[in-house]
């Protein structure tokens, strides 16, 4: 009988878990008539995941060897680097960023450039350790001064996002350009994203596409995904839905969840071939099972639709409630919409009112329009509050559309150039949306 070692068995089980379609309650198998193993034109989620990604974790026993620890504590640079890597990756030991940082500090103090870069990244993000953004940027600038392209790319990202200090998009782009010229894949990708932003400091869609094509040819997943999106939308290039499909499918098979969600949406809308809601649900289910918020949201909308292939109101509500609790921006409005379908009871009406009211206060014009249609007194009271704050209304906030309220709304609309819309009537959805756009967030 063939013997299988303990670690080999773990590796085999991990490979199977990575490549299998989810079978839990949120899997595609839970949908009537949906075959989770059948996907768009033989595109199978996770089919290309590399099993070697998990092999290294079984390389060492459960604790770091005492001799390696002693050598590192005694100043051995190689031991310090090795221990830092073990604790960073959780290879044979429980992952512990704080311990990884401890040994990176030792190695950096001895002049190790790689340790300096790793330490800077850890201190910049604060993932598992207290962030030290100023120190992180200092260390990265030392690397930049030495011509290290990885330090250039990471410092550029920090400057682009404001992580660890003020935003400086001009300097960020300059660093990306320098690192990209040295064939740094991530810098080239980030540069392409900056160039593809029509509202950015130097938009250049054609160059962005060219850079993304280089990244895609080298197997960069982010570049492949962004290029596919631009091919679908015709940004900087002629629309090519078939090539976009090929690229997204490669991402799906490599386990890239954003590609899975994008392909699902394209299939749902019929942007590649004819619309296929059943196939789209299969991909949404897979990505949702991996925790992808947008996919969970799109899945919830499909399940909430009584005309969909597999309506499930209770599950849709649970998904939207969870997303709302997690702060997903579109979920509260969608949850309120769902609750108000088909003669809601008092409890669901109260929840919908609270959700729409909060969204309206945050400046959501659609939510304010829903209040006008479904909860007119609350809508009027909110307008009275907002117009009081802006000096247009000086009466009791009764929630009734009094003459004084109408006069204050008319004056506000006139001053903000939306009188033509407001003439439709303050309770009309178009008027409510226009007023909301001018009001912005409402303060109490």
Task: Write up what this structure looks like.
- Helices cover 63% and strands 0% of the residues.
- The radius of gyration is 27 Å and the shape is globular.
- It is built from 23 helices and no strands.
- The model is unreliable at 1-39 and 53-62 (pLDDT under 50).
- The chain has helices at residues 6-19, 66-73, 77-89, 97-109, 113-125, 133-145, 149-161, 169-181, 185-196, 205-217, 221-233, 241-253, 257-269, 277-289, 293-304, 313-325, 331-339, 346-361, 365-374, 376-389, 403-415, 419-422, 429-439.
- The termini are far apart.
- The chain has 444 residues and is mainly α.
Between the first and last Cα atoms, what is the distance in angstroms?
75 Å
Question: What is the helix/strand order?
Answer: HHHHHHHHHHHHHHHHHHHHHHH
Strand coverage percent:
under 5%
Number of helices: 23
General form: globular
Rg calc: 27 Å
- Residue stretches low in confidence (pLDDT < 50, at least 5 long) are 1-39, 53-62
Mean pLDDT: 87
Structural class: mainly alpha
- Give a count of the beta strands, DSSP E runs of length 2 or more: 0
Bin the helical content.
55-70%
| Biggest sheet overview | none
């Amino acid at each position: 009988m063939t013997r299988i070692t303990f670690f080999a068995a773990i590796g085999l089980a991990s490979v199977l878990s990575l490549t299998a379609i989810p079978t839990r309650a949120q899997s595609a198998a839970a949908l009537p008539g949906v075959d989770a193993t059948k996907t768009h034109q033989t595109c199978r989620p996770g089919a290309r995941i590399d099993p070697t990604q998990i092999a290294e974790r079984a390389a060492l026993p459960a604790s770091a060897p005492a001799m390696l620890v002693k050598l590192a504590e005694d100043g051995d640079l190689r031991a310090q680097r090795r221990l830092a890597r073990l604790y960073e990756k959780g290879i044979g030991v429980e992952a512990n960023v704080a311990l990884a940082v401890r040994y990176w500090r030792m190695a950096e103090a001895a002049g190790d450039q790689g340790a300096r870069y790793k330490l800077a990244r850890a201190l910049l993000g604060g993932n598992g350790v207290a962030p030290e953004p100023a120190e992180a940027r200092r260390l990265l600038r030392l690397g930049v001064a030495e011509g290290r392209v990885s330090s250039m790319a990471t410092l550029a990202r920090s400057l682009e996002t404001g992580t660890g200090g003020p935003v400086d998009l001009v300097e960020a782009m300059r660093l990306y350009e320098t690192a990209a010229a040295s064939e740094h894949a991530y810098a080239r990708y980030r540069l392409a994203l900056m160039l593809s932003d029509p509202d950015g400091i130097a938009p250049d869609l054609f160059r962005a596409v060219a850079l993304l094509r280089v990244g895609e040819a080298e197997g960069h997943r982010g570049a492949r995904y962004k290029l596919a999106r631009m091919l679908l939308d015709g940004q900087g290039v002629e629309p090519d839905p078939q090539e976009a499909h090929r690229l997204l499918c490669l991402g799906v098979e490599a386990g890239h969840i954003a590609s899975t969600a994008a392909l699902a949406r394209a299939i749902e809308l019929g942007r590649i071939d004819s619309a296929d809601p059943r196939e789209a649900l299969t991909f949404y289910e897979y990505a949702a099972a991996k925790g992808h918020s947008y996919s969970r949201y799109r899945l919830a909308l499909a399940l909430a639709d009584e005309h969909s292939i597999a309506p499930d109101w209770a599950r849709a509500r649970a998904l939207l409630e969870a997303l709302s609790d997690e702060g997903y921006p579109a979920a509260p409005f969608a949850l309120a919409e769902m609750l108000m379908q088909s003669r809601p009871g008092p409890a669901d009406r109260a929840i919908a009112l609270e959700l729409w009211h909060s969204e309206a206060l945050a400046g959501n014009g659609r939510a304010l329009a829903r209040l006008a249609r479904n909860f007119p007194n609350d809508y009027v009271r909110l307008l009275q509050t907002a117009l009081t704050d802006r000096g247009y209304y000086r009466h009791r906030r009764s929630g009734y559309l009094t003459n004084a309220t109408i006069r204050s709304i008319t004056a506000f609309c006139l001053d903000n150039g939306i009188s033509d819309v407001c003439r439709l009537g303050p309770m009309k959805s178009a008027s409510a949306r226009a007023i909301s756009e001018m009001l912005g967030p409402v303060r109490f």
